[in-house]
Every structure is written in structure tokens, then in C-alpha cells.
From TrEMBL:
Name recorded for this polypeptide: GS catalytic domain-containing protein
Keyword Ligase applies: yes
Domain GS catalytic: 73-376
Native organism taxonomy: Eukaryota, Viridiplantae, Chlorophyta, core chlorophytes, Chlorophyceae
Family: Belongs to the glutamine synthetase family.
PROSITE patterns per UniProt: GS_CATALYTIC (PS51987)
């Protein structure tokens, strides 16, 4: 929160200045770091330290309970999730696809590299998407990453080579939103730490090269009530007359709020200049203000159950507990707590005013038909 992704400085207008104290109060279990034996990590809430004069005036012998700082990202997400639960009885579950590039630094050679400078970095391979040559060459480091994450309590669903040179993706399981954001940070730390142990560097930069695929942080969202995924409408409640009969009303309103709030959400989910180099048509990154069933070119993709075609074409389709929405317009320059807070706020606004989803974008001709424009 204190520093932007693009610079080693205090974030402008962050509320942090030379006067006063913001204390870090441990708020997560202590996690051992397998790549750094003897070291551990804990996440923290940011709390306000009252002026010492307050304690002196009150005659206090021990410090008071520290109130949450108004700019604490974890506290903001916690408040949003409490509001979602109290107002609508819903919980938000999230799972992430973490994309990254593995790089190897050249050996320093006198006369070739500047004295005191760092030799350049190069991707570890140039294999195409999902090619065995890429995963084979990096199997040791990738397997180590997965084992490390599993040992840290972060189940991995799959990993594979992505489209860009040296680019890979690790998909981790879903958790309640606050815990999911915590585990996303641990995931990135593990990827960087394990890569370094193998003599490599890992980068999550949204767009490293104009000629290569960018790195996103796709977030899979689902709404739950009473321990049940309520994204899909129960068969008895599916109304063929409704625009999207396979979606529950609560899911439809929530997602409509997210879609309508997309231009503002980008400030929180794609906050860097480099983020917008990634959000371009043809990049499967969410460049259009639209949603669709299994459409990977839109920022809000609804996953189709594996045994059906587009759910909207089958009002009697059986709901699936795995139904979720993939928010694609997010990358690693975003603070995950702030990004999820913004998404929850947009979804709650959609629920409040009963927003409706427009028709899904399923074919390229719809871009013209529905007058859908790019987000950047």
C-alpha cells in the first residue's frame, strides 16, 4: 500500500507522511518459507499508532488497542466482505491464475558488459503455448514451485507453459476472498524465491515485450450462500423468459454491476501504465467492455459447465457447483486486497440497483452489432 508498483517511493496522496506511525499487526498464521530454511513470513494489518501524548494524558501504563488505519488494504477488503454478507447473505470465493516469465541472466563477460552493470536477462525458452519442450526444460523448477506451494497450504490445480517466451502459469485453488488474496501474495513470493534458488528470476510484469503475450492475474469469482455455490440458477427457478436463465438473479445482478463498473475498476485492477499495454484486442486479456460464456477475449468470462454448450441455450441445464466468473482485466501491479474490494463494491452496487447483464458476446460480429468498444 505504501509504495506503488512502478517506483521505490511513497505513493502520492497515500496519507503517509513523516509524522505519526502506522503499525503492522500480524494478522495471518506464520508461514515457513521452504526456499529459505529458518525464515518465515506473516501478513499484517496496518493499524494507527496513537500519539504518545494520549497515553500520558490518560495515565495509561500499556498501549491501547490499535485501531485499523483507514488506508489498510486488508481491512478494506474485510469490511467489504462483511457488508456483502450482512446485506445479501453472500460470501465471495476466489481462485487465481498466476502468470509469470522465467528469465536467466547472462554471465558477466569483460568487454561485453558495462563495468558495474548487470548483464541482460533472457527468457528461458521460446516454446509455444503448452508445449512439452518448455515444461520439460523447466520441470525441476516448476515442480519445486508446486511442491513449495502445497507445503505452504496452497493447493495447485495445474501448471503449463503460456504463450510468451519463458512464460508459465500456475493455477491455485479457490478460497474465501480475504484468504485468497493472502495466498496470492504467498504464491508470488514462492515463485520468486524458488526461481532464485534455481538461478533464475521470475517476473510478473504485465507486458514485458510488445511482441509477446502479457502476464495477467486472472481472478475466478463465485458467490456462495450457506456453503453452496449460487452462481447457477436451480432448475426449478430457471425461467426461459429471462435474458440469462442459467444464472441466478443474485449472480446476474452482481456481475452486471462489475461489468458496468469496469472503466472505474481498471484503476484498481490494472493500475499501471504497463497494464494498458496488455489490455489490447487479440491478447485474451479482457480488452472489450463485455461478458460472454467461455469468451476469453472479454474481461468477464463465465465458465461453461463441461457437459453442456453455452448454458443460455439450454434453460433446463443442470447447475454446476464449479460455475464461476473469470475477471481477466487484472495483473500483478494491482494490490489484490484493493482490487477485490473494488470488485465487491461494484457487484454490491449492481445488486442494490438490480443491474441487468446485456447479451453475452459470443462471436466477433457482435462487436459491431452491440457497439462494444475497447477498454483502453
Amino acid at each position: 500500500m505504501a509504495q506503488p508498483a512502478y517506483s521505490d517511493c511513497i505513493a502520492p496522496n497515500s496519507g503517509l507522511d513523516p509524522v505519526g506511525e502506522i503499525r503492522l499487526v500480524p494478522a495471518s498464521p506464520v508461514v515457513d518459507l521452504p526456499w529459505a530454511p529458518g525464515h518465515c513470513m506473516v501478513l499484517a494489518d496496518m493499524c494507527t499508532q496513537p500519539s504518545p501524548l494520549i497515553g500520558l494524558q490518560q495515565g495509561a501504563l500499556s498501549p491501547p488497542t490499535l485501531p485499523s488505519w483507514s488506508g489498510c488494504p486488508r481491512a478494506a477488503l474485510r469490511r467489504a466482505l462483511v457488508a456483502l454478507k450482512e446485506e445479501y447473505g453472500l460470501s465471495l470465493m476466489c481462485g487465481f491464475e498466476t502468470e509469470f516469465v522465467l528469465l536467466r541472466r547472462e554471465q558477466w563477460v569483460p568487454g561485453r558488459h558495462l563495468e558495474g552493470g548487470l548483464p541482460p536477462l533472457h527468457p528461458v525458452d521460446d516454446a509455444p503455448y503448452a508445449h512439452s519442450r518448455a515444461t520439460g526444460a523447466c520441470a525441476a523448477v516448476l515442480d519445486d514451485m508446486v511442491d513449495t506451494l502445497e507445503n505452504m497450504g496452497i493447493p495447485c490445480l495445474q501448471y503449463h507453459a503460456e504463450s510468451g517466451p519463458g512464460q508459465f502459469e500456475i493455477v491455485t485453488s479457490h478460497f474465501e476472498a480475504l484468504e485468497a488474496a493472502d495466498k496470492l501474495l504467498f504464491t508470488r513470493e514462492a515463485i520468486v524465491g524458488v526461481a532464485a534458488k534455481h538461478g533464475l528470476e521470475a517476473s510478473f510484469v504485465p507486458k514485458m515485450s510488445s511482441s509477446a503475450a502479457g502476464c495477467g492475474c486472472h481472478c475466478h469469482l463465485s458467490l456462495w450462500k450457506g456453503g453452496v455455490n449460487i452462481m447457477a440458477a436451480a432448475p426449478s427457478l430457471q425461467d426461459p423468459a429471462q435474458p440469462h436463465p442459467s444464472l441466478s438473479e443474485q449472480a446476474s445482478c452482481f456481475l452486471a454491476g462489475v461489468l458496468q463498473g469496469l472503466p472505474t475498476l481498471l484503476l484498481f485492477t490494472a493500475p499501471s501504465f504497463n497494464s494498458f499495454d496488455r489490455l489490447v484486442p487479440g491478447g485474451w486479456s479482457g480488452a472489450f467492455t463485455a461478458w460472454g460464456w467461455d469468451n476469453r477475449e472479454v474481461p468477464l468470462r463465465l465458465t461453461c459447465p463441461p457437459t453442456t454448450n453455452t448454458p443460455d441455450s439450454s434453460p433446463a441445464a443442470t447447475p454446476f457447483s464449479s460455475l464461476n466468473a473469470e475477471y481477466k482485466a487484472m495483473d500483478a501491479t494491482a494490490n489484490p486486497y484493493i482490487a477485490l474490494t473494488a470488485i465487491v463494491a461494484a457487484g454490491m452496487l449492481g445488486s442494490l440497483v438490480k443491474c441487468t447483464l446485456p447479451p453475452p458476446l459470443q462471436v466477433s460480429e457482435d462487436l459491431w452489432r452491440w457497439r462494444i468498444f475497447t477498454v483502453s
